[in-house]
Amino acid sequence: MIRRSLTGPASPTAVDGWVPWPAEFGRRYAAEGYWQGEPLGERPRDWARRFGPATALVAGPPTQPVRLSYAELDRAVDDLAAGLAGLGLAAGDRVLIHLPNRIEFVTLLFALLRLGAIPVLALPAHRRVEIEHLARLSGAVAYAIPDKHEGFDHRALAREIVAAVPAVRHVLVAGDAGPFPGIDALAAAGAAARAGRPVGPAAPPDPAGVALLLISGGTTGKPKLIPRTHWDYAYNASASAGLCGLTGEDVYLVALPAAHNFPLACPGVLGALGVGATVVLAPSPSPETVFELIARERVTVTALVPALARLWVTAAAWERPDTVSLRLLQVGGARLDAELARRIRPTLGATVQQVFGMAEGLLNFTRLDDGDEIACTTQGRPLAAADEIRIVDRDGADVAAGTVGELWTRGPYTVRGYYRAAEHNATAFSPDGFYRTGDLVRLTASGNLVVEGRIKDVINRGGENVSATELEEHLLTHPAVAQAAVVAAADEQVGESVRAVIVTAPGAAVTLRALKAHLRERGLARFMLPDLLTVVDELPLTPVGKIDKRELRRRLG
Ligand code: OOB
């Protein structure tokens, strides 16, 4: 039996430090059908009944792919859940998952959910500083790693984490486990112990309670933890799948790290599995790896950040890969410039869908029937009719239609607070529960949002505000500019001056003078023109592949 408390607490998954929705919102979201169904860990049983022999997952070395059917996936989840229970892991325990795109990411995620334990999803590129912070903040009792990934030995890192954070009692290893318990061995022990019986906690988790903790993509300060409930996250995935027209015929490629909200649940892994599609886990997002997978597995849908979209489009223009099966390319996570967006259909043959989302909840999508103009020039509109959005000025008053302001939002899958962050929550959320995104947006006449930048990403040049995003877009229109990031540079006279950091197109070169002339021709005001130009070989990226301005500023000194 499943307990249905709409206000949250009072179950093992009602972890401390979580801000539930007020009861009246819970009642409304349930009545309107947003919040429904079983806890996430139970869902693979239903999928196994409905899609049993169909292929759920494909992963592993390109030459010898591992394939799991829906029935096998459900059994693997029970086996591993039994193994984890044997280690003493129980409902409410937090477990830090630091796995790349391999089968164990999916089986471990569901095994923990099935036990009512709470996965905390770190990204593969995170290292000691972030992992230690996340382990402490979440109060993790276990840490799951691969043996090695991209030349990095995670077992050495795990030793350091265990020494630094004594609450981490277990290290679970995918692959060659060394001194630690191996995930395969745990599953084998679990299979023997459960002897065919299904596994679950004494009391099933409350589906209105916290299921998992995502990591904020924020570029300021240390990552924060975002509590997502079974119901809100299930809605997030299934409604996204509906919007993308996903069916059992689709093959979804996970090119971004599976631990990120976008490829995990927008619709991603969870949305694809919920309709009986096949999920292909790419070990790397490099063109050579993914083009082979797309051709071999007949991939129909995938999701990328703009930096990767650029790489794929550039490579495809040369290599002419077989991407005929690809029908939909979702791009999100950072601003996609319209020119690059327009090159996607001719080179990769797929419809572009812009996704402006956040781990905190709100998802905006361009729709499949929007046409190329809207899909290439806007970041779409909210997923749910119950998503409330406000665009406000500095005082929190609604701006006039079409004017740029900060986006505030609340809704059935947008959190009401970060985990264990009471102080930060007081400013990150309005008193009536809107999440202040920090994103500057405007609403177009077509009813779509356009992201104009981040509230903090504005350079104050002697009292005049220069929007970094806006200038970046203008810079990208110069044929010699392949990538651009605009940051402030300290200046005695004007306080902050404007520094353009660019990567040039292959074989091209450009001077500051030529760039300024180009920008003036485009009608830019004098104060918007860059004062300094720095040409670099590559821009630093965040763990999911967005341009990392904090790191860039640090490198520039
Ligand atoms: C996604 O989630 P996060 O949590 O890594 O980052 C969220 C932030 C947003 O607040 C916004 O600043 C930026 O990333 N962003 C975009 C964007 N999508 C996200 N900025 C401009 N254009 C876009 N299309 O990044 C995320 C989560 C789910 C789906 C897609 C992306």
UniProtKB/TrEMBL annotation:
For the AMP-binding enzyme C-terminal domain, which residue ranges apply?
Answer: 470-546
> What EC number(s) does this enzyme carry?
6.3.2.-
Q: Which residues form the AMP-dependent synthetase/ligase domain?
A: 46-419
Question: Which Pfam families did the record assign?
Answer: AMP-binding, AMP-binding_C
Q: What is this protein called?
A: Peptide arylation enzyme
Keywords from the UniProt entry: Ligase
| Signal peptide bounds | none
| Catalytic class of the enzyme | ligase
GO molecular function annotations of the record = acid-thiol ligase activity
For this protein, the record's InterPro entries field holds: AMP-bd_C (IPR025110), AMP-bd_C_sf (IPR045851), AMP-binding_CS (IPR020845), AMP-dep_synth/lig_dom (IPR000873), ATP-dep_AMP-bd_enzyme (IPR050237)
Xref: PROSITE patterns: AMP_BINDING
